[in-house]
Amino acid sequence: MATQPVYRNPWPLPEPPISKWMRFLSKNHNVKFVWLQFLSYTSNTYTRIVTLAKFTQMVENGQRLSISHEAFSLAPGDSLVDEELTDGSFSILPDLDTAYCQAHSEGTRVVIQCDCVDSTTGQPLERCARSLSRRLCAKLQSSTGLVPVIGFEVEVVFLKREPDAVTYTPIGWNHQWSTITQEDCTNLDLIEGCMSALETVSVRIEQVHAEAAPGQWEFVLSPDWPLRALDTLLKARDTIRVVARSFGVHATWHPRLWPDRPGTGAHVHMSLYDPWKGHEPKRNTYYMKKFQHFMAGVLQHLPAIMAFSLPQEISYERVKPGIWSGGEYACWGLDNKETPLRFIEENHFELRMIDGLANPYLVFCAMLRAGEDGIEKQMSLVTGQVETAPAKLPPAKREALRLLPKTLRESLEALENDLILNQRAPNVIEGHPMVSTYIAIKREEVEILRKMEPDERRAWLISRY
Asked: How many other C-beta atoms lie within 10 A of the C-beta of residue 438?
């Protein structure tokens, strides 16, 4: 995270919604449609489309759209995994701070992220990961005086869809990390088109460079306060996909397209800041101890976090040893890309065990709760440090490290048994409703994908992610 964020209150004083909406429209004169969105547990975007007149009326009168509770428990094919969610509904509350005109829509289409709230009280639902992100940040600041700042690396592979509608091939095979090959030059309009579009929708990027896999590029987003960074990640992905489609190309976050080439991740960087004092707490003993406890908590709960951050079986093919993606042991290292936690500087670490198939709000909530547990229990970061690839360690040192889950099934089991992330006491079967439903959905999804042929499963994932 090369650029520091602008220091200001991450939760500014509220402005009347209609005033905020009119101010947005005064700068965007072509709006005709409004897309209201929220992200499912499977990281697919649920969308409701309304006209400008209808949405303006909704904002004026405080009206909200109603959604069935079933939305939280749908597996692929719209199969319901939780019968208790068949009754009732909730409302979606638009966050007007996230409004932007979608790229290549000529300003006619506005996209807005929404919170899921109780239809009667208007309070955030316990199952809403976006709302939970906000609450956990407020809780951490209340207890420590610190707020996380996060930034994402958006790795993407650009593919051409063949006429059979099943086969996808990269836009170029002659491709190499951080270089611009002759073949790449034929696709620079696409890459620079993405950069221009991101700038137009106010997504700040640090840099863009070629990655190692065919057709693979990385867009490094600037760091920001958590909710803005998470919303911006979704905006960036949407923008890249829209621009790619305008070039007749498909953008995918599939984590491992080819077994002999590097995979595609979505690494997240995190630091802790004091938003009121306006500085990064470097060399402050109190704050640095908090940061190290936080990082130790993430490492301690990493097997459970992986159920959210590596949400498909194919995700675990990307993080095998020897390909700079995180490896198979719970450990950390100073600027070591073969460890799941890469310690970059005294108040900056990178989680490498995450890909673009994950719901980023869920991943962040899990990281924050794990880090908070580390602070509360003053966990130590002394153990688990390695200076080389764990696979190259002497057997005795390697055996002292904890093995991480190698499949989604193992990660889901770790999450189910995690007393902090699943918020359940020993000998109590039911855990947090969001976690319980997520586990049920992912287990159903695993079975559905397992029945597919490899080529069908690959095409299914590419088409959705």
From this structure: 26
